[in-house]
């Protein structure tokens, strides 16, 4: 009797006062969204002061269960937290276009089974893409490594314009020379030479020893300038067989070595990449390196 009377009272109260009964608010249905930033932090709360739970990569899907202003409560990879919805969209990203195999179609590598390809976007940049390839049993080029690196401070130089001290890297196809390092052989099959404090590379164009690796103490007086080989950039690397005829003033000491910025004519990448490439190289597979602006790759 009480319940019935209370219900009548509530109905009459609403009728005469104009108040409405508010229904409970339920959580929104979960929605799938996709990350638009290269890397998006998921945090313990809706704000940048909260700790990062995980980081989500571009185009990765997350499940959104709640929104607070500019922040969404997301679940991804079994973890739940908050992410800025400025970098989330309900639009599904288009399927990625398969990367073109740049080694296929090259005309100058018929006798080679290993290839290092160093390309840049034009001549006047020190930034480069480094790719390695190996032929399989069917003769097809199989990508092995794709990474970034650097070339000369002022980019690439053509064969005609390449000169000593120009701070440019030579374009062309070259065989791979001696592997080297300041420590023991890291596992390469290439001929390996350990650098000592006495080692120099002669860069004096007027010397008969121009563009060769020499002992400082044994050749003193035979050159006016030479590059010290016992430096951190040469912790590991290999010789790019450029200007093996040792033509005066055409450039010397062209190496593939460790580095995180522009070089003075060599090609550089991280130590991990250099060591992995050294371990991969096999002289029985006649490895070569091609260096060129990507726009001129069809010349090779």
Can you summarize this structure?
This protein is mainly beta.
Structure, described:
It contains three helices and 21 strands. It is elongated. By secondary structure, it is mostly beta strands. Helices cover 10% and strands 36% of the residues. About 5% of the residues have low confidence. Strands 8, 9, 10, 13, 14, 18, 19, 20 and 21 form a nine-stranded mixed β-sheet that branches. The protein has a five-stranded antiparallel β-sheet with strand order 6-5-4-1-7, with no helix packed on it.
What spatial form do the alpha-carbon principal axes imply? elongated
Radius of gyration, CA atoms, in whole angstroms: 31 Å
- Total DSSP helices: 3
Structural class: mainly beta
The helix/strand series, from N terminus to C terminus, equals HEEEEEEEEEEEEEEEEHEEEEHE
Multimeric state: single chain
Note the gap between the termini.
96 Å
Runs in which pLDDT lies below 50 for 5 or more consecutive residues are 13-27
How much β-strand is present in the residues? 35-45%
The beta-strand count equals 21
Number of domains: 2
Mean pLDDT across the residues is 91
Q: Mind describing the biggest β-sheet?
A: 9 strands, mixed
Residues in helices, as a percent range: 10-25%
